[in-house]
Specification:
With 199 residues, the protein is an alpha/beta fold. α2 packs antiparallel against α9 and α4 packs parallel to α6. 33% of the residues are buried.
């Protein structure tokens, strides 16, 4: 099977994540997309990670009506800082029959060489990079060429420019502002009923 991997903290998951995942599924002819909430991001070590159950539940609610979207909680179960190379090693060991596509944004590709063991990630997955602005394509192709030393296989995804971030959404929720049409309704209701991100 061809499997897309969508990692993140998902505090909270929003339509930006879902749009990228759906476009990856369609353009790469993926059989499934696995959403993998991390326990603790190496790039966001200051973020609270004691809300794992809430983050898992919000992902489940967000993807519940999509037959090809699944959740995998291996990084949360492993605990500690979530390193993508460890996740890819584990997936390759347990699912050697699958072909993996590691979905990321263009901003992540720019910093990819600073990740822990990028060559291991490239060994076990094709990088699927979401492009929101055609003006960025030339620069991203230069990065892609530089990463050939890692053995990187990179494909680019055409993605609608839906600009939203989880941190901005948390700020809006804390301020009592609307987040409608930026999050699935079921996720909004979960945040409201569990008083998440509110001051």
């Amino acid at each position: 099977m061809r499997i897309g991997l969508m990692g993140g903290t998902f505090r909270p998951i929003h339509y930006g994540h879902l749009i990228i995942a759906e476009n990856a599924r369609e353009q790469l002819h993926l059989d499934e997309v696995w959403f993998i909430p991390n326990h603790s991001s190496p790039f966001k070590v200051s973020e609270h990670t004691d809300d794992a159950d809430d983050r898992i539940k919000m992902v489940e609610l967000a993807i519940q009506n999509h037959p090809y979207f699944k959740i995998n909680t291996l990084e949360i179960e492993r605990s500690g800082i979530s390193y993508s190379y460890q996740t890819l090693e584990w997936l390759h060991e347990h699912y050697p029959e699958h072909e993996f596509f590691f979905i990321m944004g263009g901003d992540s590709l720019e910093k990819f060489e600073t990740w822990y063991y990028p060559e291991i990630i490239c060994q076990y997955a094709t990088l699927a990079v979401a492009i929101r602005n055609d003006n960025d394509m030339d620069q991203l192709k230069k990065y892609a060429k530089n990463y050939q030393s890692f053995g990187a296989k990179i494909v680019f995804l055409e993605t609608p420019n839906f600009s939203v971030s989880s941190s901005e959404l948390r700020d809006r929720i804390a301020q009592g502002k609307t987040v409608r049409y930026q999050l699935p309704d079921a996720v909004i209701e979960y945040i409201r009923s569990h008083h998440l991100y509110q001051t």
